[in-house]
Design brief:
The complex is a heterodimer of chains A (about 210) and B (about 800). With about 210 residues, chain A is α/β, with parallel strands linked by helices. Chain A is built from four helices and 15 strands. In chain A, a hairpin with a 4-residue loop joins β2 and β3. The radius of gyration of chain A is 17 Å and the shape is globular. With about 800 residues, chain B is of the alpha/beta class. Chain B folds into five domains: about 190 residues, 3-Layer(aba) Sandwich (Rossmann fold), CATH 3.40.50.300; about 160 residues, P-loop containing nucleotide triphosphate hydrolases (Rossmann fold, 3-Layer(aba) Sandwich); about 150 residues, no CATH class; about 50 residues, no CATH class; about 160 residues, no CATH class. Chain B has 31 helices and 26 strands. In chain B, α1 crosses α2, α10 crosses α11 and α23 packs across α25. The radius of gyration of chain B is 28 Å and the shape is globular. Chain B starts with 8 loop residues before the first helix and ends in an 8-residue tail after the last helix. Classes of the chains: A alpha/beta (about 210), B alpha/beta (about 800). Chains A and B meet through α1 and α2 of A and α18, α27 and α31 of B.
């Protein structure tokens, strides 16, 4: 796996974008990502659609490599950690997470995170709320128009279409506007929305090996 | 059989053979009462041997179209009443009232008219075997329409199950003439029973008339003739009692509806538009009014290719190419329905070159060369669905079912490993080494019975049975209330704000989209007609052959066809600027203009084959020197376009067009993974990997949605040997690449004399290809290099690297 990075400055803070669908905040030692959708494949299997759990394991491996690389002290998950409540994939996730019990685990809840008290205990969350604010930067799952603060969000699974006269290529991206930093979905088992991404922003698309600003 | 007339010989033959216990296939043109050949055979057999028949269901009648069922049932019921029997004919399909369906379960009618899907739904019922015990015959109407499709495979599987319940079952098929009748019969009746083929001697007379524009342009442009020709079509409609105007796509039908109304405003209220996106009630209303002669004309897509006889229809108009002889005959046969009437079909070209196609069609009809319908093989997705159907019903024992499946034509080549993979897929999700915790679909009971126990899974399966995969469709309703029809989500998602669209002949403006419904208001002015992804049928190879023949002789002063005479200026222009290929020649044009360098080749093999050929030729040229191409193609030929000079000369042409290493080069030239991904869409839906319909709007179901593309990516990464992935690749080779046809084409090209012409202007043959917008690229650059290039091309800069 090749980690390509690009530093950007927002609100006088430096953030490191990666081509591995996550964001690193050096000053806070925080690894920030969104839309992990743990349990999606298990939910499919439960309903008779055969998908092996390798997909999630691959996502977690990617996360492990990122942890190795950045040595974060905390995770900030901007929503949709889980896909559909508790299932066997969540067990696997908890086992994985136990290796990193020293890293603080903060969850900003997303629309998929329907987390019961029992489940909350199982996940060993250090923080769980609808939003999180650090240094005047707001972490929230979906962009909140009524709040004037700068927001780091997920939810959309943004993708960007590069057009030319002959060909189209669709790639996942980070989107940055004056009010918002929209994260790509961390899980690879997610689609891309190219319609509902903020207009007139900077778009950082990436491939397995590189990250580009458009 | 017309009342009061004496029966045709093929009808009498059918009754006799049926009476002596035969199964078989009836081949007859439309309008000669082929329905009554098989249906009355059952009645006459009953009347001769009433004691052989017990109470309950006696015949299942399978028809490809829901809309046909009602009328067939009505006609049968009338005949039965006239004879004075107390039999009932029932219809069972998606439109049937649940109350009626329940009654049928309690008390089956004597004859049940179904679609392939509703037959399978019956098989998904618990304890369904009791319905069939006293059955004598299963009849498949319009078998030529089902053969070669996955719905045809559903019919094969359904019959195998019925044949298992009733070993003495008679299987009868009814078909129009196609090129491979014997094969068609083998597919329908692969069993070792008494069978026969009965062919009607009666012939349908057809009048083929070209509609000429006032003048011929020197460069034909696909599609732009419409406006001019609408004025010529109006009098044809006015002079006829009732007319069907056939188009090839839904967008074309919407366009022509508008064109006709503009050309002759009095048509308002007298003409209608009919295609599969239009509300079913409206469609039925249109069909009824066409039958009763109240409508002057209906603009339609293939949605009216089949169906009941519209007696008043005496004229058919075909807009654009019919793409194949069989399809053309089918459409022509929609007019002049009674046996000895002449079918009249007017051909309206969308660009003037299509007039040559009319000449070619006339020749093909004269020589009675009709395309075969190739049966599909090893459709694992349909088999998986069928096994699920059995598991949802009473359950099944794999070994016992396997013996039956091996007899079904489509699955005669199935291997034991493949069968095992399929059973594993249903029971544990995949190979045992993979992790499929909590997988829960088919459960193996203690006695080995494979059965679905989860009610939710059973319900999801029942709601998603079938082999017709459509794009996600959105309902279109007026904001003030009133349903208009359906439109592809794909189309709506591309619509910009303020843009209007046309549906069911109305100009509409989107007000909002909510709950899978597009709320619209009526509007005026310029609007887009939904363009649909499907519906681009390629030219058949038979028609391609006649087309080449007609073109080669086009400038022969002895050519007498009106079409060719009319086209003379255009053809002379082609000869002057370049060349008109003779039958033993293969034309290559190199055109240089301001834009860049264009290479045109004209194999006349249809769009699909050209797509593959274009990629192949591009690949072979790019081996000579690094070069990137964009491609375009139509049914006649293809274009490679580059900003660099194309290193092609008379000396290396034979190497570029050789048959050596053909398939090896094809595989290197195409993005087979991308093609397979596209094919996987249908496979994923049919096999149940992607769920299209959910019960109600329950929130929890949203979490089950994913795209076939995503699942394909996952399977390719983690289980590349998955049998459904393999099937996707096989379908690419058989259907997309059409290996057989490609090889045949190259055999022919290899023997031809190559003619290479240079020009700096487009020629009449090249121009329609140039304006065609289906573009693709072939390039050897890797993804990252491509992206950088694309970004530069699109005028944006990569800021740092």
């Amino acid at each position: 796996m090749n980690i390509a990075t690009k530093d950007i400055t927002i609100q006088n803070e430096i953030f490191t974008l990666t081509n591995q669908r996550a964001l690193f905040w050096e000053k806070e030692k925080a690894l920030i990502f969104s839309d992990l959708h743990i349990g999606k494949t298990a939910h499919f299997r439960k309903n008779g659609i055969a998908l092996a759990s390798h997909i999630m394991k691959n996502d977690l491996e990617r996360l492990s490599i990122l942890i190795e690389y950045f040595q974060p002290e905390k995770f900030i998950i901007v929503g949709d950690l889980l896909h559909a409540g508790d299932n066997s994939d969540v067990d696997t996730f908890c086992e994985w997470k136990n290796q990193y019990s020293n890293i603080k685990f903060c969850l900003v809840e997303g629309n998929h995170d329907r987390i019961s008290k029992i489940l909350e205990k199982k996940l060993c969350l250090d923080f769980k709320a609808d939003l999180l604010e650090i240094n005047d930067i707001l972490f929230v799952h979906d962009f909140d128009k009524s709040n004037s603060k700068f927001q780091i969000t997920g939810h959309i699974h943004p993708g960007f279409v590069i057009n030319s006269s002959v060909k189209k290529i669709k790639l996942p991206c980070f989107t940055v506007t004056s009010k918002q930093l929209l994260l790509p979905a961390f899980s690879e088992f997610t689609g891309l929305d190219t319609k509902n991404i903020p207009k007139k922003g900077m778009y950082f698309v990436f491939t397995d090996s590189e990250i580009y600003e458009i | 059989m017309e009342k009061g007339n004496s029966p045709f010989k093929f009808q009498v033959d059918t009754w006799n053979k049926f009476g002596s216990g035969y199964s078989g296939m009836v081949v007859a043109p439309t309008g000669f009462g082929k329905t009554f050949s098989v249906f009355l055979a059952l009645i006459s057999d009953f009347l001769t041997n009433p004691d052989k028949y017990k109470k309950g269901l006696k015949m299942i009648w399978i028809t490809p179209l829901r809309s046909l069922s009602k009328d067939i049932a009505k006609a049968m019921q009338e005949a039965i009443d006239e004879i004075g029997l107390d039999w009932a004919v029932g219809v069972r399909n998606g439109d049937t009232d649940p109350k009626v369906r329940q009654q049928q379960v309690k008390n089956m009618p004597e004859i049940l008219v179904v679609t392939p899907e509703s037959l399978h739904l019956l098989l998904a019922q618990k304890n369904h075997q009791r319905f069939f015990t006293n059955m004598h015959c299963v009849a498949v109407d319009e078998w030529h329409e089902l053969l070669g499709s996955k719905r045809g495979v559903m019919v094969e599987l359904g019959i195998s199950q019925l044949f298992h319940y009733v070993p003495k079952l008679k299987i009868w098929g009814i078909t129009a003439t196609i090129g491979n009748l014997d094969e068609a019969q083998d597919v329908l009746i692969p069993y070792d029973i008494k069978k026969t083929k009965i062919t009607a001697k009666e012939l349908k007379k057809i009048d083929i008339i070209s509609v000429f524009p006032d003048e011929v342009e020197l460069l034909p442009w696909a599609g732009h003739l419409g406006q001019k020709l609408a004025d010529k079509v109006v009098p044809i409609i006015l002079e006829s009692k009732s007319t069907i105007v056939f188009t090839n796509t839904r967008s074309q039908s919407e366009m022509w509806y508008q064109l006709l109304l503009n050309a002759y405003p009095d048509f308002a209220g007298q003409i209608a538009i009919h295609h599969s996106s239009i509300d079913a009630h409206l469609r039925i209303w249109i069909e009824e009014n066409l039958s009763s002669g109240k409508l002057k004309a209906v603009v339609s897509t293939s949605s009216l290719d089949l169906g009941i006889d519209f007696k008043p229809v005496d004229t058919v108009i075909q807009i654009g190419s019919a793409k194949g002889v069989a399809r053309f005959l089918q459409r022509a046969g929609r007019s002049g329905h009674s046996p000895f009437e002449t079918s009249k079909i007017f051909c309206v070209p969308t660009h003037s070159l299509e007039l040559i196609e009319v000449a070619a069609l006339k020749e093909a009809v004269k020589q009675k060369v009709i395309e075969p319908r190739e049966p599909v093989v090893l459709c694992f997705d349909v088999l998986v669905q069928f096994l699920m159907t059995l598991a949802v019903g009473d359950g099944f024992f794999p070994n016992e079912v396997y013996e039956r499946i091996k007899k079904v034509y489509t699955f005669q080549e199935i291997r034991d490993e493949e069968w095992k993979e399929m059973i594993d897929f249903l029971t544990i999700g995949g190979s045992a080494l993979k992790s499929y915790e909590e997988y829960h679909k088919v459960v193996v009971m203690e006695d080995g019975l494979h059965k679905v126990t989860s009610r939710k899974i059973a319900m999801l399966h029942r709601m998603n049975m079938g082999a017709i995969v459509s794009d996600a469709m959105l309902k279109v309703k007026f904001i003030s209330g009133g349903y208009i029809g359906m439109v592809e989500e794909y189309f709506i998602s591309r619509l910009k704000k303020e843009e209007k669209f046309i549906l069911a002949g109305r100009v509409l403006e989107v007000a909002m989209i909510k709950d899978m419904t597009v709320f619209v208001r009526a509007s005026k002015g310029k609007a887009l007609a939904p363009s649909y992804l499907g519906g681009r049928l390629p030219l058949s190879s038979n028609l391609g052959h006649f087309l080449r023949e007609k073109l080669s002789g086009a400038l022969n002063p002895k050519a007498f066809e009106k079409e060719l005479k009319f086209l003379h200026p255009l053809l002379a222009n082609q000869e002057k600027r370049s060349h008109i290929p003779k039958e033993d020649e293969f034309l290559v044009e190199l055109i240089k203009n301001r834009e860049g360098y264009h290479l045109f080749m004209y194999p006349f093999e249809g769009r699909l084959v050209h797509e593959v050929m274009a990629a192949l030729i591009a690949y072979r040229i790019s081996k000579l020197a690094p070069i990137s191409f964009s491609m375009a193609m139509n049914d006649y030929g293809f274009e490679l376009f580059s900003d660099k000079e194309i290193p092609l000369t008379e000396d290396n042409l034979d190497k570029i067009l050789t048959r050596d290493n053909l398939m090896v080069d094809v595989i290197s030239s195409i993005n087979s993974a991308e093609m397979a991904r596209r094919k996987f869409r249908d496979i994923a839906v049919i096999s149940g990997m992607v769920v299209q319909n959910f019960p109600g709007q329950q929130r929890s179901n949203k979490a089950l949605q994913s795209s076939a593309g995503l699942i394909f990516k996952v399977l390719e990464n983690y289980d590349p040997n998955h049998f459904l992935v393999r099937q996707a690749y096989t379908e690419v080779f058989n259907m997309q690449l059409q290996e057989q046809r490609l090889v045949e084409a190259f055999k022919r090209i290899e023997k031809s004399k190559f003619i290479l012409k240079y020009s700096n202007k487009f020629t009449p043959l090249s121009f329609p290809i140039k304006v065609d917008s289906l573009r693709q690229t072939l390039t050897s650059e890797n993804l990252d290099a491509r992206i950088q290039k694309l970004i530069k091309q699109s005028g944006r800069n990569i800021k740092d690297e």
